[in-house]
Amino acid sequence: MADESGELGLEYEIDDRPPLLESILLGIQHVSVMIVPATAVAFIVAGAVGLGVADTAYVVQMVLLFSGLATVVQAYAVGPVGSRLPIVMGTSFTFVGAATTIGIDYGLSAVFGAILVTGFLVEGLIGWQFDRIKPFFPPLVTGLVVVIIGLYLVPVGMDYAAGGVGAADYGATHNIGLAALVLGVAIALNLFTDGITRLLSTLVGIAVGYAVAVPLGVVDFSPIADAAWFAIPQPGAFGVTFEPVPIVTFAFLFLVSAMETVGDMSGITAAEGRNPTDEEFRGGLFTDGLMSSVASVFGAFPVTSFSQNVGIVNFTGVMSRYVVGIAGVVLAVLGLSPKVGAAVATIPSAVFGGAVLLMAGMVAASGVRLVFLHTNLDRRNMVVVAASLGLGLGVATRPDALSGLPQAAATFFGEPVIVTALTALVLNTLAPGDQSPLFDAADESVAADAADGADGRASTDD
User: Which residues of the chain have pLDDT under 50?
Assistant: First the structure.
């Protein structure tokens, strides 16, 4: 339960170090929630562009490796790079469509060239100047971004719970049953138990679901035998070329990624009843951009904050960056050992779906908390909420409604996160209110002028 300041009853705060074994299990819980969707991006793009088994395995390996390295940097920072917040990093589905289309039309070298240029250029610039633009992202705006991220993940979780899009047994009873089992176990342990069982409720739910899935015959162990024990990263594995259209496309997508990261960082600190500081925002955005650019040289897709793990933090009350640092080390080890990664990737989609549904709901709920704690929901702010979520969910549920637009516009405005964020940003900025940076500045100027005038009159009277 939250206290009067809005802070959740945290089991472990940001600088706490739980016992080592408990920390390792909590770190593995973070990994178990994000590893399937993070690697799914690599599988989807690799399959679409026609990569062979070995090249596909290598891309998956690089995604895991750089997700781990970026997670450690995010948690502990290297100079100005890193937010020092418990943020798990991974490859976002935001980039799947563009990476697939550009990979087919221009080749993967153009994809990685575009990421190399735009990663740090776009997010680095936003991070560098974030203190200037921070007034435009008050809790009303960032909270709505967190809400739409969570709501946008719900259909993804349902697809996984049904067995995965395109699966022959999509919607089968055993898939729904497995997802319901994971969901039920995680909720029951979190609400009705204390101590380690509550903290590891999601991991236990996944483990129970996996144990039940094995005798059902829905776990494929063959990828484990085919994978190597160890593999070394190779810079320039797919080459790097620079094409204008891919660069512009990924520049827009990194803008979306920056908005998601701002929302995820706000969702994390919402557990403490606060917004991130300027330094945390800046370091987090630097990590997104710089690590994505470096990863592209080795053949990995962009790494950004993972919203599912924001839900884990809020669901368990474990905000320790030490735990998340361990999760980063685990991911990096998996990236260096494809066989271990293949073993983890045998988790059935339905088992994973039960956990994602829970985490997606928690992300959305943390966004709602952020809005309620820091925003007076008067008529003006209710209109901002209604328009932002209405448009964001509209393009999420009916993307074909934009099919008449030019392709570039349809791609840009088809992103629920960016539509919600831009709507909230524009309305909050232009409509008079206490969270508008324009009208706040005007009010402060009037107040300052009034104070100066009063001082002047007092001086004259003297």
Answer: 1-2, 4-6, 442-462
HEC states along the chain? CCCCCCCCCCCECCCCCCCHHHHHHHHHHHHHHHHHHHHHHHHHHHHHHCCCHHHHHHHHHHHHHHHHHHHHHHHHCECCECCCCCCCEEECHHHHHHHHHHHHHCCHHHHHHHHHHHHHHHHHHHHHCHHHHHHHCCHHHHHHHHHHHHHHHHHHHHHHHCCCCCCCCCCCHHHHHHHHHHHHHHHHHHHHCCCHHHHCHHHHHHHHHHHHHHHHCCCCCHHHHHCCCCCCCCCCCCCCCCCHHHHHHHHHHHHHHHHHHHHHHHHHHHHHCCCCCHHHHHHHHHHHHHHHHHHHHCCCCCEEECHHHHHHHHHHCECCHHHHHHHHHHHHHHHHCHHHHHHHCCCCHHHHHHHHHHHHHHHHHHHHHHHHHHCCCCHHHHHHHHHHHHHHHHHHHCHHHHCCCCHHHHHHHCCHHHHHHHHHHHHHHHCCCCCCHHHHHHHHHHHHHHHHHHHHHHHHHC
Q: Report residue 81 CA to chain centroid gap.
A: 18
Q: Tokens at residue 420, please?
A: 């919600």
- Distance CA(210)–CA(328), nearest Å, equals 23
At 265-295, the pLDDT tens digits run 888 888 777 888 888 888 999 999 999 999 9
Joined together, the tokens standing for residue 424 give 């909230």
Specify the amino acid at residue 118.
T
CB atoms within 10 A of CB 410: 16
Q: Length of the chain, please?
A: 462
Residue 87 tokens read as: 């943020």
* Residue spans per domain, the chain: 20-375
Hey, which residues does 90 pair with through a beta bridge? Answer: 304
**Are the beta carbons of 236 and 297 closer than 8 angstroms?**
yes
90 phi and psi, to 5 degrees?
-165, 180
The letter for the amino acid at 373 is: L
Token pair 């998340």 is at which residue?
Answer: 324
Task: List pLDDT tens digits, range 366-409.
Answer: 788 878 888 888 899 999 999 999 999 998 888 888 888 887 67
**Residue 121, C-beta contacts closer than 8 angstroms, at least 6 positions apart:** 251, 289
Residues 67 and 306: their CA atoms lie apart, in Å, by 10
Q: Beta partners for 81?
A: 78
Residue 164 falls in which region: left (phi positive, over 0), alpha (psi -120 to 50) or beta: left
